[in-house]
Amino acid sequence: MKKRLLLVLAVVLAATMVLASGCTGNGGSSAAPADTGSSAAPADTGGSAGGGSNLEQSLALRDAASGVTGSDGQPLLIYGDARPVPDRPDDPDALPETDGLKYWDIEYAGRLTEKADPIPSPADGCIGKTIWVIGQSEHPYWTAVFHGAQTAADSLQITLELHNPNGDLNQQNQLIDQAIAAQPDLIMLSPLDAQASEQQFKKIYDAGIPAIAFNMVPSDAAMKYVLCLTAPDDFGQFKMLAEYLAEEVGGKGGVAYMTHLPGGSPYFARYSNVRAYYAENYPDMVYLDHQSPGFEAPKAKQVVADWITKFGDELTCIVLSDDSAQGEGCAQAIQEAGRDDIKVIAAGNSKVGMDLVKSGGITAITYQSAEADGAIAVLAAADYFNGVDLEPCYYLPQAVITADNVAEYEPAQW
Q1: 39-89: per-residue pLDDT in tens?
Q2: How many angstroms separate the CA atoms of 254 and 242, rounded?
């Protein structure tokens, strides 16, 4: 009798353990994802404490996500508006071109790309899934990106593996190999080099692991292998910023540009894009020069000092790709030259940049939430795990920050 009772208790205990385990993601297990092509509802996978299936609980967390805020008090898990995609000009010569690249294809990369056969969603909920996140560098912006991604993951009960290649493409490729070997449920990758991104994402796709491109726009060819892109709408927000500057100076001025690193999408968005926008809409916003000094304040200061010497009163507007080091150096040069008539716009929004807006050193900056840059990608991954059909691209919310509204976006995230 005792043996029979012990046997019954053992069976009950084993069944309880199976039910309590819920869904932990496929994370390298041999179980195949559910076929989402059928109209049948996803199987009940048990879920975690609180009742209902994993999918039901995941959807409840997703519904509550709109209430999650970043360290600046702004909503963290809300998709921004996506601009419509215009028809690509038939005449290649009609496309603005810099360094041999047609930047229309960079601005709208992936929006019209025909995808390879997508890796089907398990459609069993995001709770318990594991994501490898491969970023770019040790820059404070990236610290905030990872913090935002982790905040989103915590709210959606997703496990993250955060990895930083320190700006080294070879190291990033090694991390991709390590991620593939670990077999997570999904890989988030911010490619260091757009030209290398096709090979990177194809390798992940061929390994059968779904991927999301985030932060940096990959090549259009690479986009066929990713579920979606999540990123700041760098082109769109710099059009907004360019419009604000043009209105401030009455549509007339001499403009000098301090670029981002040549070759990446921020270079085209924050320089070529603005220059082309003015050529089309404000022909009296005259191009003077562009320089790429990097991100050291002394070098930026020297460039601006040289511009002031060379162009004199003709220089009335400066477009910066960075509101921190470039912004600091630019403001110092303008102050020392006594040129408070020069209007400056920059990519934001660091504490340095926001302080410069308050002091008048910079006229306006973009609102670009570093935390949302990581969080939105995690949100898109959660939607994928929950069986939602993803759009090709999700942008971050955007705004122009000026002295009139800067307090609304404080404290700065980095």
Answers
A1: 233 333 334 445 689 999 999 999 999 999 999 999 999 999 888 898 887
A2: 13
Nearest to 118 by CA among 384, 375, 393, 383: 384
Residue with tokens 């390298």: 28
Task: Quickly list DSSP for 91-125.
Answer: SGGGS-EETTEEHHHHHTTTTSPPPPSPPPP--S-
Which two tokens mark 9? Answer: 């208790």
How far is C-alpha 367 from the chain's CA centre? Answer: 13
At 174-194, the pLDDT tens digits run 999 999 999 999 999 999 988
Provide the edge-to-edge strand list for the sheet that holds 159-163.
159-163, 130-134, 186-189, 211-214, 228-231, 393-395
How distant is the alpha carbon of residue 42 from its chain centre? 30
Per-residue model confidence as pLDDT tens digits over 222-232 = 999 999 999 99
22 contacts 127 by C-beta, under 8 angstroms: yes
Structure tokens, 394 = 């999700």
User: Whole-prediction pTM value?
Assistant: 0.80
Phi, psi of 216 (to 5 degrees): -110, 135
Task: Please spell the DSSP secondary structure of 35-50, one letter per residue.
Answer: -TTSSSPPPP---STT
Q: What is the mean pLDDT of residues 228-240?
A: 95
So what's the pLDDT on residue 372?
A: 97
**22 phi and psi angles, rounded to 5 deg:** 60, -155
- Looking up tokens 């029979």 gives 4
Under the banding of pLDDT at 50, 70 and 90, the label for residue 27 is very low
**CA gyration radius, the chain:** 24
Q: Are 268 and 236 in contact (CB under 8 A)?
A: no
Cα–Cα dist 298/156, whole Å? 43
Which two structure tokens, joined as six digits, stand for 361? 């050193």
Long-range contact pairs involving 51-55 (C-beta distance under 8 Å, separation at least 24) = 53/124, 53/125, 54/22, 54/23, 54/124, 54/125, 54/127, 54/128, 55/123, 55/124, 55/125, 55/386, 55/387
